[in-house]
TrEMBL record:
GO molecular function: phosphorelay response regulator activity; transcription cis-regulatory region binding
Protein name: DNA-binding response regulator
Keyword Nucleotide-binding: no
Pfam families: Response_reg (PF00072), Trans_reg_C (PF00486)
Domain Response regulatory, chain residue ranges per copy: 2-116
An annotated GO BP: regulation of DNA-templated transcription
Length: 225
């Protein structure tokens, strides 16, 4: 799961990033309005953590930009301002939740997991697809009654495909979603091929009724046999 953390306070941003990475989220950051706007224009995220007061502009303006572009990212506003007006305006602009500083990191994690489940999986903690059961909270996968052992990236790839069943996913979109900013550092998609190959092998070996099919020259799609 990929999160964009938009926060101008360096210490707080670093603490939030480290805490969420321990939960195995992929975290990208922006410390000002213009950097955040550029990232939101270019990439999609499972959740956006959005400070209102930013150098160069308001976080509420970023919400307006998301609304204008028809993007439906999960958004949690994070601000030291406990203003009812800001809260109401942010929620009316499409924010999913509002967290006032200071807050406990455990609460932040719980809110993030909650809005992602609510937006992407109808609030469910379990994805059932074919004979495969994916537990999003525990990050476990079972094929029928047998555990399927996946590494972090393989799990994230499987969840991404399960959330986009029967949809063609191009290699660039997959790379950006799973590897974030680091995807731009590679000249080819060898790092994707390797993870996909291993994941497909593991699914086949456990007699999973789902398959990640390659579409030559474009990408992949997950289908239920």
């Amino acid at each position: 799961m990929k999160i964009l953390l938009i926060e101008d306070e360096d210490d707080l941003r670093d603490v939030m990033k480290i805490s969420l990475e321990k939960e195995l989220f992929l975290i990208e950051t922006a410390s000002d309005f213009h950097t955040a706007a550029e990232k939101l224009e270019t990439y999609d995220y499972d959740c956006i953590l959005l400070d209102i007061m930013l150098p160069g502009g308001s976080g509420l303006t970023l919400l307006e930009l998301l609304k204008e572009k028809g993007k439906h990212n999960s958004v949690i506003i994070i601000s030291a301002k406990n203003s009812i007006d800001d809260k109401v305006r942010g929620l009316n602009l499409g924010a999913d939740d509002y967290l006032t500083k200071p807050f406990h990191l455990a609460e932040l994690t719980a809110r993030v997991k909650s809005v992602i489940r609510r937006k992407q999986h109808d609030g469910q903690k379990i994805i059932n697809i074919g004979n495969v059961k994916i537990n999003l909270n525990e990050r476990t996968v079972n094929v029928q009654s047998s555990a399927l052992i996946l590494n972090r990236k393989e799990f994230d790839i499987l969840v991404y495909f399960a959330s986009n069943k029967n949809r063609l996913i191009n290699k660039t979109a997959l790379a950006e979603h799973i590897w974030g900013d680091h995807a731009d550092q590679s000249d080819d998609f060898e790092f994707i091929y390797s993870q996909i190959k291993n994941l497909r092998k593991k699914l086949k070996e456990t007699d999973a009724s789902i398959e990640i099919q390659a579409v030559y020259g474009i990408g992949y799609k997950l289908v239920v046999e």
